[in-house]
Design a protein that fits this description.
Blueprint: H1 2-19, H2 22-26, E1 56-60, H3 63-69, E2 75-79, E3 82-84, E4 87-89, E5 94-98, E6 102-104, E7 108-110, E8 115-118, E9 121-122, E10 127-129, E11 133-138, E12 141-144, E13 152-154, E14 159-171, E15 180-185, E16 187-188, E17 191-192, E18 194-206, E19 209-214, E20 216-226, E21 236-239, E22 242-253, E23 256-259, E24 265-271, E25 274-277, E26 291-297, E27 300-303, E28 319-321, E29 325-327
Parallel strand pairs: 1-2, 2-5, 3-6, 4-7, 5-8, 6-9, 7-10, 8-11, 9-12, 10-13, 11-14, 12-14, 13-15, 14-18, 15-19, 18-20, 19-21, 20-22, 21-23, 22-24, 22-25, 24-26, 25-27, 26-28, 27-29
Antiparallel strand pairs: 16-17
Organism: Flavivirga aquimarina
Protein name: Right handed beta helix domain-containing protein
């Protein structure tokens, strides 16, 4: 009788879980992947990627096995150290856990949905997101070698819930007309089609362009470092409008470039931003003239210009409070070794 009762109980629990929607099962607490800290109401509803529903386990030891697993829905694959060719992850509900010395000498493309990726090294690139979303990338180190190839990029098509955490994206021998370490966009025409993008503990390096966030709604960037080697053409670029933007504890070296006919930022909060630049522009002035409801607080401004040192910088079109501008020698920036991938 007790065994029968246990059986009925297990059946009831199983049926109850199966009746719940995917969203109910997969809503991820703030700290499950990365602790974003206390978020302002502006982006408190930001959503992490949904968890993949795993059905089988595999171990990958060669390129053929990797290619096969990349098309299997519901697979969880552990990828051993070694060298692999171009990989296109077309499966849905899948995860790939790579050893640090698992190296992809080619492109890495995410085409499927609900994909979880952790670890590994990409030494040729690029990394391309062609998915509708629910992509989590954790502890990936990627190096792209110029040739008008963005390191990590997303298309101007509909996508939702993408997170890049604990990762390093680099471009070497890039072209100033392109070659972004990160170029993520979510707009085609006048519609926002990119939603819920999280960047946390990410280091972006490029000797061409550094980063471009374009037309994203619910954009959260924390604990990151842009252009620590002082080689990028820019330090931050927000282009063609982003809505509901939150940045905190981010180091930005170089100019801020914000462009596009649309309002560049609608509803933005920037906190504890440390910026290094060669002109007498504070971080807030680089936000641009087409902004609505932008607040900048407690952000440090270091400049090689002798003008205005010790004076409160103008907030321009933004509101908030900031410390005085401080002198910078143009060479010394904070150590970046604690940012990004751990390999």
């Amino acid at each position: 009788m007790k065994n029968l009762l246990k059986t009925y109980t297990l059946v009831f629990i199983t049926l109850f879980i199966n009746c719940k929607s995917d969203d109910d099962l997969n809503k991820t607490p703030n700290s499950s992947y990365y602790d974003l800290g206390v978020l302002p109401d502006l982006v408190a509803d930001v959503e992490w990627p949904l968890e993949p529903q795993i059905m089988e386990q595999r171990n990958i030891r060669n390129n053929t096995e990797f290619q096969e697993a990349s098309a299997v829905n519901g697979v969880s694959a552990k990828v051993a150290s070694g060298t692999y060719n171009d990989i296109n992850i077309t499966c849905n509900d899948c995860e790939f856990i790579l050893e640090d010395h698992a190296e992809i000498q080619g492109s890495l493309t995410f085409t499927g949905n609900r994909i979880k990726w952790k670890g590994g090294l990409v030494t040729t690139g690029p990394i391309i997101m062609e998915s509708k979303g629910d992509i989590l990338i954790d502890n990936l180190h990627s190096i792209t070698h110029g040739g008008e190839l963005n390191n990590f990029s997303g298309p101007a098509t509909g996508w939702n819930r993408v997170a890049l955490i604990n990762s390093t994206m680099e471009v070497i021998n890039g072209d100033n007309n392109g070659d972004w370490a990160l170029f993520i966009q979510g707009k085609n025409g006048t519609d926002f089609r990119g939603n819920n993008f999280i960047l946390a503990n990410v280091r972006l390096e490029s000797d061409a362009q550094n980063n471009r966030f374009q037309s994203i709604q619910n954009l959260v960037v924390v604990d990151s470092y842009f252009n620590s080697n002082i080689s990028s053409k820019n330090g931050l670029r927000i282009h063609k409008g982003c809505k509901d933007v939150y940045m905190r504890d981010v180091i930005i070296v170089g100019a801020n470039t914000n462009s596009g006919e649309e309002t560049q930022i609608t509803n933005g909060i920037f906190e504890q931003i440390t910026r290094y630049n060669d002109v007498n522009n504070h971080f807030s002035n680089g936000i641009g003239f087409n902004t609505i409801n932008v607040t900048i607080n407690d952000s440090q401004c270091y400049t090689t210009s002798s003008n205005g040192i010790g004076q409160p910088p103008s907030l321009g079109v933004a509101s908030g409070s900031n410390p005085d501008m401080k002198a910078w020698d143009g060479l010394t920036v904070p150590n970046s070794s604690n940012f990004g991938a751990d390999h």
